[in-house]
Structures are given as C-alpha cells and as structure tokens.
Amino acid sequence: MVPRLNPLTLxxxxxxxxxxxxxxxxxxxxxxxxxxxxxxxxxLGRARRVLLAxxxxxxxxxxxxLVMHGLFYPEGRTVLAGWGxxxxxxxxxxxxxxxxxxxxxxxxxxxLFSFSVRVPDLVAALATLRLPPQFGYVLASTLMLxxxxxxxxxxxxxxxxxxxxxVEKGLGSRLKAVRLQMVPLxxxxxxDAGTRAQALDARGFRRAGPRTSYREVHDSAAQRFFRWAxxxxxxxxxxxxxxxxxxxxxxx
Amino acid sequence: MSRQEMSGRNTSGQNAAxxxxxxxxxxxxxxxxxxxxxRGVEIEITPGSLTAVLGGSGSGKSTLGRLLxxxxxxxxxxxxxxxxxxxxxxxxxxxxxxxxxxTGDDPRIDSxxxxxxxxxxxxxxxxxLSAVRGTVEEELAFGLENRGTARSEMTRIVAETARxxxxxxxxxxxxxxxxxxxxxRLAIGxxxxxxxxxxxxxxxxxSLDPAGERTVMELVRDVRxxxxxxxVLSQHADGLTxxxxxxxxxxxxxxxxxGPPDRLLAGGSLASSGVVVGGPPVLPAAGAGSRPVAAAAxxxxxxxxxxxxxxxxxQLEGVSFGFDANDPGSPLLLKNINLDVRPxxxxxxxxxxxxxxxxxxxxxxxxxxxxxxxxxxAGKGIAGVPTGVVAERLGLLFQHPHDQLFERTVQxxxxxxxxxxxxxxxxxxxxxxxAEVGLDASGGVHPHELSGSGxxxxxxxxxxxxxxxxLALDEPTVALDAHGLDRLTAAxTxxxxxxxxxxxxxxxxxxxxxxxxxxxxxxxxxxVGC
Lengths: 252, 530
Known about the structure:
The complex is a heterodimer of chains A (252) and B (530). Chain A contains eight helices and two strands, in the order αααββααααα. With 252 residues, chain A is mainly alpha-helical.
C-alpha cells in the first residue's frame, strides 16, 4: 500500500515514466522500466496481480507481434529462415522485440498504477483540479468496470450451467460459452446503467454549482513539487528526442 | 416545483421540513407503451403520515412512486396528464401546482432539486448506489458532495444518518460486501441524508429476515417522528403497511379503493387486487418478524407426505463448506450438514440473512463444492460432475431473477438448454412450463419488461420445464403477488405430486408452514430440526 502518496503523484509519476520511455525509444530503457515495474509490484506485494493482468493483455500481443513482424517484416534483409512468402528476418525479430518491450513497459506500469491507487481517492483528487465531476465518474467507472464485469459474467455463467450448459476444456466449447455469455452480459450492464442513471440524477450528480469532497486526500508541498518536476522532466525528454531526431541522431 | 423555483433545502440531518405532496394523475403512458400505466390516481401525502400504496405486481405502484419522486418525468419518460403539488412549508396550497397536459409546454422538474424534498428508495437497493464510492460513509456523503455541503457539516450528517440507520459499525465497509438488509438500510440512508420531507420506499421489507424487517420498521418510525411523511409501495398487507394511516389500492394502473386499512380489509376491497393479505399485524418486537406469521396455521402441506422408505432424491452426508478452502483454520459457513429429501417431499429451509441458505442450495448442483462430505442427487454422487450435467436432475431457482434471466425473449429463456434434454419435444415442454406459470401469452416479451412477479414466475418456468428430480428454490415467494403465489403453490404441489423432491429456502414462515412437509432452520452453520 502507498497510503501517504497522493493519487495525482502516482498518476504523474506513471505518466512521466511512460512519456520518457517512449521518448527514449530504446529496448534497454523499456526493459529496465518493465523490470522496475515488476520489482516495485513485488515490493508492494502486488506482483501476482500485476503479472496476471499484464500477462493476459501482453501474451496475445506478443504472439501477434512475432507472427506479423517476425515472419512478414517487409524491410527484413537478414533472413534467418524462410518458408515461401514467410521469412524470419533478424530485422523483423528485432522490431517485434522492441515494440513488445515498449508495450510491456506501458502495460506493466499502468497495471501497477491501477492496482496501487484507490479509485475513490483518485476521483477525489481529480475533483481538486476542478475537472468536471463526470470526468472523474467515467474514469472511476472504467477502472472499476473490470471487477463488475467479472462478477456479472460469473453470475451469467452460473445461471447457464444450472440450465445445462457444460463448458468443456476444448477451445470450441469455451468460445461457444463466451458467445452465449456476451449478449446477456452486455444487456445486463446496459440495464444496470439505465437504472443507476436515475439514481445519480436524484442524488444531484448532474447538479450545477460548487461541489465538495467528503474524503480528504493527503497531499504535501513536496509532492506538489515532485509532480511538477517529473512532468517537466518528461517534457524535457520529449524535446530532447525531437531535437535528436531533427539532427539525424538519437538513440537506436 | 419546477427548476426555477427550487432553492431552499434541509440538509440538517435532523428534523425534516414539513412537506405536503399532492398528486392527481389523470393518466401516464410510457413512450412506446400500449396503454396508460396509471389512470385516475389521486394521492395526498401529509407531514408525519404513513401511506401504503398496495397492489399486485404490475399494478403501477412503482410507476406512481417514481413519478412522485421525479425519477420518472412527464415528457422525458412518457406522457403525463394531471397535477403535482409540493408544499415544502407544510401548509397545503403553499406551492403552486405543476400542471401537466401531455404537451411540450409542460413544466420540467429538476429531479435533484425535487429529491431535496422527496426521497425514493427503489426495490433493488443496489440501484441506489453510485458504484464508484469505496466505503459506506463515502456513499452516504455522495448526495451531500453534489450539493456542495461543507466537509465539517457532511461529517456530522453522515455520522447522524449512520446512527439512525444502524450503519455506524459499517462506515468503513465496501458497499459491495454488505448483506441484503444492510444494503437496504444504506439505500434508505442515501435517501434521507439530505433530509427530505417525504420518503417513498418501494417494497422495503422484501428479502429481509425478521431482524432486518424490524430495523427498517424502526427506521420508518424514526423518520415519521421527525415530521417526514413516508409512503410504502407494497404488495403485502403486512405489519408495516397495516400501521399506515391511509391505503391506496391500485389495480391495472387505476385506483380501485382508498381509505383506512381497517375499512378496506373489512370491505374486501383487496380481493382481486393481487395484494397478499396475511394474518393480523405483528408488532415489531425482538425476535419477531413483521410479516404476518401464521403461528396458528396448521402445517397443511401440499398433499400428503411421501411414504417413508423411498430412497432420497437429494442426500447430503456430512457436508461442510467455507469460502476460504486454502486456509484450514478459517471458519466454516456450513458444518457437517446431513439432509435427506425423499421424492415428493417438500422441505423448507429458514434462517437469518447471511446464514448460508443460498450457499447450501449452490452445493446441491455443484456451483459450489463442499470442503468435506458428499452430495447425491437422484442416487448419484455429484463429485467431479459438471454443474451442467447435474442440471439434468436438479433445477435451481436463483434468489434474484435478475441473475437467472439472460435471454432476449421469454420463449428463448425457457427453451434454453431444453433441446439437449428433450430433443424435438423441447418447444412443447417450454410451452407447457410457461402455461403453468401463466406466461403463455408473453413468449415474445423481453424478460426485463415483465413485472417483478412475472420475472420470478419466468425464472420458475425455466426450472419447471426441465422436469428435474429435485427442485431447489431460493426465496421463491419474494416479489410474488397473491396471483403469483397461487401459481407458485400450484407448481410446487404439481412437481411434488409427480415425485420431485422440493427444497425451498424462505423467510416467509407462513408459506413454509402452509406448504412444506417439514421445516428446518439453518443456524450457526448447522441444520436444526431435520
């Protein structure tokens, strides 16, 4: 847990790291950031959740990268193996590796952020920036959607199994089950959203005028300074990258 | 009170402003609706009063409640003709009546400003919550935050509201982890936190155990004691609605009777309304439920008890269960449960909220697996057998129809999975099940468009259509009006008559005593009275 850090500090740090990683455009930096995110997650006791969620996103992504660029990279010259039109080239593998590492750094940092921040605190902190409350609500809903979907999906599946659906281990059976569950899942979520909208209206959510926040989110001068500093650093990294590109150099 | 007129509000969390709400609804028709959902309904709600709007499922109670609370609006949600008048000073006639003629010139109500004076709690308490607040206290404060209440004042009001609703010990809890009764109290707390002069509660006692019912009834008394008016929408003439000063009876959207409860009960005005009429009122006392419990009713079960000696259709042997299977030291929810239910036998399982009754039913078909012990259905153990296969022998009715219904039409809902069981006869079986619950004319309707009672009966039809050897029914009476209860009773009797074993979990002790061959209580993880 990171109890004394303002969610905006965590958000600024995550955003700055991602911007700097992109600006660096270096597999070594990407690998360092990704490893750092996993190490930090482990130190905070969240390695399992971060790796599981990150893995679910990254595994298919890596697979598609290797297939697309490893086998069919147009600029590939150094052929390592070939089967007709499909050629494994060193350049293709290198590109897939670079893209994969960069995306891994992105996903792992964002997973670490979302598993470290308390969503209601983030919403309260965003309210202090005078952002529209709808912005905070949409953000919070998005971050909290995954567990809601998981619960709803579980319920639908239990209802269907209780009426004779047998999900076997094969891919076909699983895909059929997913297809059967998608329509009720979406319809259920839409139905819930409709009834919730009336309650939100009655509770003054769309009301104009000033709002207050019940939750006090800890902040400090040092954290405010850190946020400005790291965002400036990220801006500087982008400028450096542009200058380096314009002069024809830059990191590989 | 229109958008321009709203300004004053009471967020003291103490006494409510004396508020009078009058409505004369000539007609309200939903956009796309085939006919009026309400017609010829007049109601006057005065400070400190308790009014009960009674009617069967689909009679228009919730529509009236939502119109009174501005959750439904003329123009936006349907065509409204009539008047609404809100006098927040307590003197009738103070506020100008809002006249709706069903045209584009009708007044528009600011639902948030209206909610300062008229609070509404839907039957599904979870729908009241914002879903983006991490604790009970933050959820209570949500409405105050939106009104710009100062933090020190918010802290005071939240603490006061939590005290009144009995939520003080739960302030730090995640709302998603609350029990049904706790959730209902939180929803009421969210409605009263801004101190409305009128509070409208839709089926506030549904699914609550006696302790939960008692808490809600005490809360209603507290709200009225502070000068607020309470309106209860219900299909039960129970301990709460019998305390009302005035009843309004709805049938097919029209008011069929109005007046003091005693006069309406004596005059037989409820006969065709679908309202469930129990015994005399039971005052809320420690350990007693508010629903009329037929203490003197004979245990007249549906048909004779099955002959002893038949092999059990459902058998539980030494079943124990806890949610933390990895921690052998964690407390068990169910301990060493033994239960035999014979073909044709109806067994009722009672017990307080959170005792594990629904969990017990989920062990029957393998949705949950016991940590120890065996479950046998129709003589066969279910260990290692997929739930979808056990479902050929055991039908489970979920506690919330919302969780059970997932198809686009009533017809598709019932026929799901039947082809596997009955092949070409699936359609006939589905039609027969729909006819049994009285929904044979609603095959093309979307399940969400059915009334609460209709959804419950549809969920029951999905179970009956499979003709299982064992029926496991979780709170089957909830949301059913008198007509629905008759259908349920007939269906259970018929199923038992053809040799099915029936296990029903219920808080409705009167129903259990009237229709079950025996009643067992789940308490502290053990079944008592087997």
